[in-house]
Amino acid sequence: MTSAAQHTPTPTATSTSADPADEHEDLSLPELKTARYFHFQEQVATASWATMARRMPSLLRHAIVLAWQSSPRDVLATTTFNIGVGAATAWALVATTSVLDQLFSTVPTPDRVMAALPALVWLAAALVTRGACSALAGRAQARLEPQVVVTAEERFMGDATHVELAAFDDSDFHDHLFRCYLRGCDEGGALVRHATDVLTGLVSVVAAAGVLTALHPVLVPLLLLTMVPQWWGSAAASRLRYRTMLAITQGRRRKHLVERLMIDRTTAAEVRSYTMADRLTSAFSKLARHELAVHMRLATRMVTIRLAGDTASGLVMGLVFVVLGWLLVQEIVPIATAGAAVVAIQVARGALSRALSSVAQVYESGLYFSDYLNFRQEARTRLPGQDLAPAPAGFDQILVENATFTYPQSAGEDEEGTQRRAALQGVSVTLRRGQTVALVGENGSGKTTLAKLLSGLYTPQQGTVCWDGTDLAGVDGDSLRSKIAVIAQDHTHWPLTARSNVTMSSPRDTGRLERAAQAAGADTVIATMPAGWDTLLDKQFAHGYEPSGGQWQRLAAARGFYRGDDGTEVPLLIADEPTAALDARAEHRFFSSLHAHAHRTGSAVVLITHRLASVRMADLIIVLDQGRVVGQGTHEELMAMGDQTPYRELWNLQANAYRPSDLTDTT
């Protein structure tokens, strides 16, 4: 993305100082001040009628396939009954022409009215049939559309949860994801509905055009001419709405984020503690007002387009009736035929208008559904390789060789050519099974990124991560991660029972569950819960329970200890800052359990922590600085390297905090 435009921060409602240092960063999006379509030039370019006309057959094919996979029965019913509606419309039009011809071919008399009764009955039957088909078609469409949407949502969510983790570090990916979340899936169902409406309208138009051709051939091209302005208006309005949606994507995504901050339970306490309500409300108002302004401009332009289209269509329609009147005056057509022509024109114009409106809606839905298909295509490029070999059952050593990893960037970033610093640069380390390995370094040194490479969540852009010679880039990701346990620094508070929070997707094993809880100290947490392991850990729902931060951390640790398959322990356990919320006693117990776990199971344990006293007993300590390995060895070996080495410097800083200050005798 482009760099944020400069803006003047706004003081909070409680601020009384005019000092700029007291002002705060605006919570709304600075990008709102950039050109509205700047970030989406490619999408706008592909939204033209010519481009969409070329893509429409493919889009309709995808939509129909999606509909058929959702409910073949409702697809057949929708198609059949909509064709029935069109056919019944044609039937009614022919019957109307017959009635008018019977009544007005000569001066109306009772005998002529009686002669017209069969045609009237025929007309009534046509109208009843049309109404029945319309009702049944409506029912089938009402059943089909939500089924298509659910199928599209299932595939969308499946793609979103299977793409590589690095995709979620890309702002452009989030924009695309958000647009599909808002409209893409829904428009799959709408596209099917509009396509069937087009089919219905075309059947009616063909029938009306046949009647008009029989009455006088010149009426058909004149009728089609009346639709050109309406076609233009519908197309321009659809394109404008889509461009508007693109323009507000980032602002709307930011608005949703602010909304969640304002109404989510997890942020409610801090919002109140730091009196953020006014700032959040101000940010929400700014974002909402910006979006409102875009919609207001859209409304004005839509009215202008509609007025121009309706005016031109009305003028052309007037021309049609002038021609019809001239044909009547010249006695080219009789009065009965002229009356039938008026009815046919109105029916044809209405059917053609609906068909064109449906075509415009197909075009508009196609724009959004195209986003959905493009997202699925992009997701497939971000999926791990298919049909890969399963991961090895275990390893004797993990060898990381010359690994380099840089987080993805969004289009437009670093447009001045600034080189982005790699999170890891040429890292080479060796981990052996049964070892406890500690990753040490200051914030931003690359510890967590290296752990994610070891766990298979990221793949290095250069270099390799191998289990006994097997490059992890060439193995199935799910198979690999089933053999790895991760105790994450920012672990998820799953709104599930305590049992499910620990067992997750691993097979249920009561014995292993109890052992994992004891190792993590979570057994004491479970003992305090009202329903034990069956307690729902979400206060937002009835009978829910909210653990403290330390209790959540013990449950997350138990989750890591529990991880395994078929009763076997995983060969690799990664713990990233696992004791930040624990008290000293619980922390000591956890680290003791961690080392015992490595020795008991033979697993390799990778530990990331800033508390260096806890890594002293590690078999190997790897020190990172700005994405590079600057030292590795045991505690004693690293301490012997000298006072100015990063590890010893960090150790002394922490150790000094626990040493008593020199006391001066003042007596």
Question: How would you summarize what this structure contains?
Answer:
Helix content is 59%, strand content 9%.
Summarize the structure in words.
GO terms for molecular function: ABC-type transporter activity; ATP binding; ATP hydrolysis activity; ATPase-coupled lipid transmembrane transporter activity. This is ATP-binding cassette subfamily B protein/ATP-binding cassette subfamily C protein. The chain crosses the membrane at residues 75-94, 114-133, 198-216. Residues 398-651 form the ABC transporter domain. Helix content is 59%, strand content 9%. By secondary structure, it is an alpha/beta fold. The chain folds into 3 domains: 29-382, ABC transporter type 1, transmembrane domain (ABC transporter transmembrane region fold); 392-410 and 421-483 and 570-659, P-loop containing nucleotide triphosphate hydrolases (Rossmann fold); 486-569, Rossmann fold (3-Layer(aba) Sandwich), CATH 3.40.50.300. A 6-stranded mixed sheet has the order 6-9-10-3-11-12, sandwiched between helices. The longest helix has 53 residues, at 110-162. It is elongated and about 120 Å long. The two termini are 67 Å apart.
CATH fold category name of the largest domain? ABC transporter transmembrane region fold
Which CATH-level-2 architecture of the largest domain?
Answer: Up-down Bundle
CATH class of the largest domain: Mainly Alpha
- Overall 3D form: elongated
Which secondary-structure class do the elements indicate? alpha/beta
Write the CATH homologous superfamily of the largest domain. Answer: ABC transporter type 1, transmembrane domain
Sequence stretches where pLDDT stays below 50 over 5 or more residues:
1-23, 30-47, 410-418, 663-667
Strand order of the largest sheet: 6-9-10-3-11-12
Organism: Nocardiopsis metallicus
Region (Disordered): 1-24
Transmembrane segments: 75-94, 114-133, 198-216
GO molecular function: ABC-type transporter activity; ATP binding; ATP hydrolysis activity; ATPase-coupled lipid transmembrane transporter activity
